[in-house]
Amino acid sequence: MASTPMDLDEPSVAPSLNITRTLGINVPNTSKVSDVIAALRPTKLFQREDIKEGKPQPSILSIDFDDPGDLCMTSESDETIQIYSVKEGRHDKTLLSKKYGVKLAKFTHTSSSIIYASTKTNHAIRYLATHDNSFIRYFDGHEATVTNLALHPGSDNFISCSLDNTVRLWNIGTKQWTAKLALSGPTLSAWDPSGAVFAVALPVSGAVLLYDLRTYTKGAFCSFDMLKALGPAEPDAAFRGFTVLQFSNDGKHILLGSRSGGHFLLDAFDGSLKAYLRKPGLGTRRVAAGEIEGSIYDSSGECCFSPDGRYVLSGARKDLFVWDTLAAPSHNKVLEPLHVLEDKRESAVVAWNPRYNMVATADQELLFWLPDPHA
Question: Edge to edge, what strands does the sheet with 349-352 contain?
């Protein structure tokens, strides 16, 4: 691949990242993902200029976009939240959470407020106004590390998973949880695009449970046994730790990220394995959600669906891999990447902008990917 010029964010130089570059030249704003995905290139690299010389860059623990796709937010290991303007391609704001730490930061459906999990002092989830860095509310209840936050697609209600063996449902308007599910080792949760169903992943038992929001008190209405679903692809991969749980926006598939040699594309209706998305080369160094392994951080998501639900994008020790969910897998349901997007950096965290054809990846530095109009 020919080298691609990359803007480096510096205090004295703040080049504009015109969002029309995501669509290429003379391409309408309604460009399909399939028209531009092979042309994604690393385009804008951000380095923390406030880190003193000689000190390492902090690790980026999570990436999230607001609903309009105009803001990108990271939570970082130095107990800061960083907010970036997507259209301008610049750093906008630093928020501090030195007392409580921060991870799993997510925008609510209002771009000026966020929720995030604590990493020290206690296990509360915090609701913050970003315009003045003031707390609106604390959500108390968890007695161990929070491993996942999942915001409802149509409201600011959310789900949290924790190592205290509970899954809790919250209404953002009150500090008390509205429901608590006692489960064995729940680490990940996700809403379906309608907001009527939510899923919980339990790696200790190799299962994914589905709940109807209206009747969750009666228990899961469906359980996917991952060991049975995997078949010959990689039989022991169900127990290697899960990193991502996500529904596609068309509601047809569930993506279950794994520390194994691939990720799992499941049928959202019956849990059957549609394809084992094999990762060439080495995976990221992050451990699975909720795992503790020395000084290595757990994963908040190194793979994701494209907004149209057709593609899956995954980070690795180097390069980005793209799979087409419409492609036919081999006889043992293994699907090889359709594209390998070259980059020498590790992509331990990956997020796709919900509105624009751009992707953000990170390990210790945030990187914006845009389609190269000349590719």
Answer: 7-8, 40-46, 366-371, 359-362, 349-352
